[in-house]
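Training component of the fellowship. As part of building independent skills, the fellow (R.M.) carried out the full modelling exercise for a liganded target. The chosen ligand was protoporphyrin IX containing FE. The inputs are recorded below so that the supervisory panel can assess the work.
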Amino acid sequence: MSVFNKEWWVTRVPVDYEKVIGVIRDLVIKEPIPVHMKRWYYAMGATPLILFLLQVTTGLLLTFYYVPSPEMAYESVRHISQDVPLGYWVRGLHYWGANLMIIAVFLHMIRVFFTRAYRKPRELNWILGTMLLGATLTMGFTGYSLTYNQLSYWATTVGTNLVDQVPLIGHWLLTFMRGGETVSANTLTRFFVFHELFVPAILFILIALHIFMIHLHGVAELEGHEGEGYYPFYPDHFLKGVYVTLFLLTVMSSLAVLLPPALGQPANPAQTPLHIKPEWYFYAVYGLLKWVPIKVGVTLIMAGLIVMVFWPFIDDWFRAKWPKAPIGYAIGGAVATLTLVLTVVELLAK
Ligand code: HEM
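Fellow's submitted model of the complex:
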């Protein structure tokens, strides 16, 4: 009997194939997708998912050559960028993929917020989403530090210093992240493990839970477009995913070739550069901390994070008190505008 024969498999892996295919058919292929999801901004949930899978692929390829030691890290990144065949391309895909993933997660969150899709019964999935945002930003922060150039080294030092200001657990968190009091070889090892294993595993579990919850609830109705009907996941919605993937790959590949990520100068722990700046997605936080004393800034950020995580319940409270007032839109609009302004101001500042 050949391995191409179904019986060969049934004898060795005795499961009910009809049942398995039936489950896949019902859970994936026939999954009803509401018609309002044909709008382009509803693709912002699938986009970070696709980018996560692409990041895992390019990240694994980079690991073939990356060496997580203070002596070798910068040199191994230089080697990838300049000597390894197509190394610059894979590094560029990973770098731009990370930036696009962060943009996509923010856009997805904005779409969920402004379509008020976090309301009952989806509050817990919003909370899972805020964890996904945290994990995605942690991937960006830890990944940046691995390059081990002057800017990334000092951004890591300043970034972890900030953690020290967190009330109660700050110092414990700082030594946990750094693997000691100062940024050392231990820090690089830890950041490597966080970036390669720990945080991706958490992201994977969170994404699985997030999608499971979406399956339980179905996608929320869009206000004013209720009852427009459904279409099956396959082939239309699946094909949309294929188009998004091809589009992302084209954009990432073009950026990797036209605007390759910088190499910078090797990290020098003895020489603090004049300007230390984090990556653009922390500019809003960085800008805020320039204007207010550090303790006030960290407390404000912590308060903002708590409001973000529990927003669905806070929104319920506002609605019970003032049913007609669009308080959510006002607060969301103000926070989004302030974040955008602070980010653009830092982008333009030399
Ligand atoms: C890696 C990050 C994330 C991935 C891969 C992801 C993926 C998805 C997908 C595929 C959907 C289905 C609907 C759609 O495509 O728009 C969805 C819905 C949802 N997401 Fe996310 N998401 C992420 C982050 C977030 C964040 C940061 C939030 C909010 C804080 C969030 C909150 C929600 C909620 C509440 C829904 C249900 C929306 C509805 O039913 O209309 N997600 N997510």
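The panel noted the following from the submitted structure. The pocket of protoporphyrin IX containing FE is lined by residues 42, 44-46, 48-49, 52, 105, 108-109, 112, 117-118, 122, 125-126, 129-130, 132-133, 136, 207, 210, 214, 219-220 (CB under 6 Å). The longest strand covers residues 32-34.
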